[in-house]
Amino acid sequence: MASLAGSGCGARREFEVTRWRGVLFSAEVDLAVHDLPAGEAEELIARCVSEMQRLEALFSLYLPDSSLCRLNREGRLMNPPAELVDLVRKSLDVAERSAGAFDPTVQPYWKWLREAVETGGGIDSAEQARHLARVDYRRVRCSEAEVRFEQSGMAMTFNGIAQGWITDRACEVLREAGARHCLVNLGEFYALGGQPSGQDWLVGLRGLVGEEVSLRNRALAVSSGSGFYFGTGAGKNHIIDPRNGDCAEDRRVVAVTAREAWLADALSTACAVLGEAEARALVAKWEDVELAIHRAPA
Q: Are 204 and 90 in contact (CB under 8 A)?
């Protein structure tokens, strides 16, 4: 839902750019390191990619041996990786502060709704209620020793927060290695420093002509129901209100910027299903978070 709007590098000298493009959580992603020698930048990018792939193997819903898949299958995970514990705790914190507008336990309902729409079976109200009853972040217990569900049939997804969390980790690797001019796009944007020219990075919001966000040492996450529909055409989409099972309005585009990408990611997901006043009240619970709500043309 966002793209690099312009280089802004000026014409005084050429800046060396080393870029990597790949796939993370089934989405195309890219990472650009500016103003470092190519060999040094390539080695740094390789370290980032290795770390991103390691973390995806923990958080993936599609890799059977991932920590998340094991938790969802068994209902508990003993001695969970520290990264998983941190992500669960952050998810539950946003869930609590948003009163369930963000809820990582929405996965059983999300999966059921997609299958119901794509198989043409329609929405049976009794089945809908049964699957919604499995959604409740308050029934997750998390410690360094164990993560578990207090109700059978529960499952978690990190689709509204993991890409941001991994973005932050990639930026840590870059920052610790001395990189100062990087734009990371792993589903959420993070601008590490400014451009080599001294200007901020400009990121445009797709589908919104002239709407750009200026970034420097800051993350941007954008959420809209139009990003992915179940089935074909308009209708049910991938952003679901965990409180009632409704889908986000598809023409509404929510953009959140924050110092940390995981937070921008989770808040943009929550705000996509909240009214504007509720959304602004939610982001005000954290420092230095900015919210913009747009409507895409029909």
A: no
Most confident segment among 27-36, 158-167, 244-253:
158-167
Q: Is 199 exposed, middle or buried (0-12, 13-18, 19+ CB in 10 A)?
A: middle
pTM of the model: 0.91
Helices (H), the chain: 38-59, 67-74, 82-97, 107-118, 125-132, 162-176, 261-271, 276-283
Query: What letter represents residue 91's amino acid?
Result: S
Q: What SS3 state is found at 218?
A: strand
Q: Do 267 and 93 form a contact (C-beta atoms < 8 A)?
A: no
* Six-digit token string for 144: 């360094």
Supply the DSSP symbol for 138.
G
The residue type at 249: E
Pairing assessment for the beta strands 201-205 and 189-192 based on DSSP bridges: unpaired
Contacts with 240 (C-beta within 8 Å, 6 or more apart), sequence order:
106, 109, 110, 113, 246, 247, 248, 273
Instruction: Give yes or no for a contact between 174 and 33, defined as CB atoms under 8 angstroms apart.
Output: yes
Which residues have CB under 8 Å from 159's CB, separation 6+?
Answer: 25, 61
What range does the domain containing 47 cover?
A: 1-298
Query: How far is CA 234 from each of CA 28, 117, 159, 228, 274, rounded to the nearest angstrom?
Result: 23, 12, 21, 9, 20
CA distance 296 to 298: 6
What CATH number is associated with residue 48?
3.10.520.10
Give tens-digit pLDDT for 216-271: 999 999 988 666 667 765 577 678 899 998 887 777 889 999 999 999 999 999 99
Confidence at residue 9, expressed as pLDDT on a 0 to 100 scale:
37
Is the CB of residue 264 less than 8 Å from the CB of residue 257? Answer: yes
Q: Where does residue 295 fall: left (phi above 0), alpha (psi -120 to 50 degrees), or beta otherwise?
A: beta
